[in-house]
Amino acid sequence: MKKSMNKRALIAATTLATSLILVACGNDNQDDDTMTPMESSSEMMQSSDQLDTSSMMESSSSAMSKTDSSSESSDMSNTSTKGIENKKFDVSLTQAVDKFKDEYKDAELTSINIDKSFSNYVYEIEGFNESNELEMTLDAMSGEIIKQNEEKLDEPMDNDTLDLEGIVTPEEAMKAALDEVGSGYVKDWGLSSEVGTTYYEVDIEGSDKDTEDVQIDAKTGDFIGFD
Fold it and tell me: What is the pLDDT of residues 30-65, one digit of tens each?
């Protein structure tokens, strides 16, 4: 009787021990699959850092793109503001010539140039009459006469004189010169005459071509050549 009871007790104890071992193993597996709060927080911080880094890279790329675009726009703007092809002067070429002739009656003109003097643009006009060589510098915005000069002629002038009747405007001449060169901006221009032909000399800078003055026929607006 006692032997039977001992045997049953041993079987029960063995069964209980086995059950405990199985439960313990199950708990270990569950622990392996379940994150602790600290582990979960660490993973969330890593994910957040990754998102922040990605966002910073996208923002940096966008900023660089905007900077490049702004730089290109600035370059275009600088080129257009450097030249006088789009600049409006209060005193036109015709008005400058009339001012010269008001001062010097019966004068013939030999050259007209527009140039920058310090911060102002001026017309520099040269000519002659029966007794004197004549020069005048005129402010292109105010019309004020800045300088006049007369020198007595020792002998008659044989210079080619300007034929200003029906000539194209300086704006048309500058456009024709820029179209011929294809790039750059106009620094200044002048009117000259040679062998009976009156022409514009348009000084272009910033061009891809190695050119000096571009010569435009003052009567037709056609390209003549480079000087």
Answer: 444 445 444 544 554 454 455 454 555 555 455 444
CA distances from 32 to 1, 21, 29, 45, 198 (A): 47, 17, 5, 21, 97
**Which DSSP symbol is given to 22?**
H
Backbone angles phi, psi at 90, to 5 degrees: -65, -30
The pLDDT assigned to 133 comes to 95
CA–CA gap between residue 49 and residue 56 (Å, rounded)? 10
pLDDT bin (cut points 50, 70, 90) of residue 14 is low
Q: Are 188 and 114 in contact (CB under 8 A)?
A: yes
Residue 198: Cβ within 10 Å count: 19
Each residue of 18-29: pLDDT tens digit?
Answer: 555 554 545 454
**Could you tell me the CA-to-CA distances from 125 to 20, 53, 55, 94, 155 in Å, in that order?**
115, 66, 64, 12, 21
The Cα-based distances of 140 to 165, 181, 200, 216 in angstroms read 21, 26, 18, 22
Count of C-beta atoms within a 10 Å radius of residue 84: 22
List beta partners, residue 139: 122
Q: For residue 13, which phi and psi values (nearest 5 degrees)?
A: -65, -40
Core vs surface per residue 120-134: b (16+ CB within 10 A) or e: ebbbbbbbbeeebbb
204 three-class SS: strand
In what side-by-side order are the strands of the sheet with 213-217? 145-152, 132-139, 120-128, 108-117, 185-194, 197-205, 213-217, 223-226
Which residue is listed with tokens 């272009």?
Answer: 204
